[in-house]
Design goal:
membrane; mitochondrion; transmembrane; mainly alpha
Length: 254
């Protein structure tokens, strides 16, 4: 009977936590939809005068996609925080510490990603692709940007950057349970896996796949170098430590 009551209590607590996360996500969605035009101006590249929108329903569904992406991105952080608060009383001290550090690292990673890295990537990509509309002076062609296409590419870029952190965590977990010799031996397979993951989570173009696959390979090589330095450091520590004789050895008996 006590176990049943405890199970009911935990289910109620989980329902409360998930309800808080859903209400927070809905609040973010309605807030972003209320200020949808100002939100679009945040993502607009500098120096752009206008966007072209075709179709009566295109702009409406574009607003919905933008608000959904924005609210679900922040709602995911709220959900992870609520799950941590739900699981925290049943965790050991070291498990709670590891989970808390992972949660804080996730928040810091995505905050730096969307505050510093994401605007830089958007600016570089916009300057790269907008340069093509200025190189047709001999033919006198004019290219105008479409709002739906621009926000669709931002959504794909957001998905790729969002899934980059779980890929790095999975790579770290694989490193813990494997040996360094295996990583060196199957390095080529790791490169293929990195670009396969990039092809799965990005649009079918070389630039997007390179933006995801290349950082995974660089992180892979950094992990190998760091692992080699760490193993050498441990060997140096073991060499410098004095060897203590056993207290029941023949030397002590004599």
């Amino acid at each position: 009977m006590n176990r049943l009551q405890i199970s009911i209590y935990y289910l109620q607590e989980l329902n409360y936590r998930l309800t808080y996360a859903i209400l927070g996500t809905l609040f973010l969605f309605f807030t972003t939809y209320t200020y949808k035009q100002g939100l679009i101006f945040i993502f607009l590249p500098k120096g752009l005068s206008h966007f072209v929108s075709t179709g009566l329903t295109e702009i409406f569904f574009t607003y919905l996609q933008l608000c959904t992406i924005f609210s679900f991105s922040f709602g995911l952080g709220i959900t992870l925080t609520q799950l941590y608060l739900f699981l925290r009383p049943g965790l050991y001290t070291f498990e709670a510490r590891i989970t808390f550090n992972l949660l804080i690292t996730t928040i810091i990673f995505y905050s730096c990603l969307y505050i510093f890295i994401f605007p830089i990537i958007v600016k570089v990509l916009w300057e790269l692709f907008s340069a093509y509309s200025q190189n047709f002076t001999a033919i006198d062609l004019t290219f105008e940007p479409r709002l739906h296409d621009y926000l669709s590419h931002l959504r794909q870029l957001n998905k790729a950057l969002t899934l980059s952190f779980p890929c790095l965590i999975a790579l770290q977990i694989v490193q813990i349970y494997t040996s360094r010799q295996t990583w060196v031996k199957y390095r080529g397979i790791a490169y293929i896996v990195a670009f396969s993951i990039a092809a799965f989570i990005t649009p079918p173009d070389v630039l997007s796949q390179t933006l995801i696959g290349l950082p995974l390979i660089i992180f892979y090589e950094i992990q190998l170098k760091f692992w080699a330095l760490y193993e050498g450091y441990k060997k140096q520590l073991l060499i410098r430590q004095p060897i203590e004789s056993h207290k029941y050895s023949d030397r002590n008996k004599k």
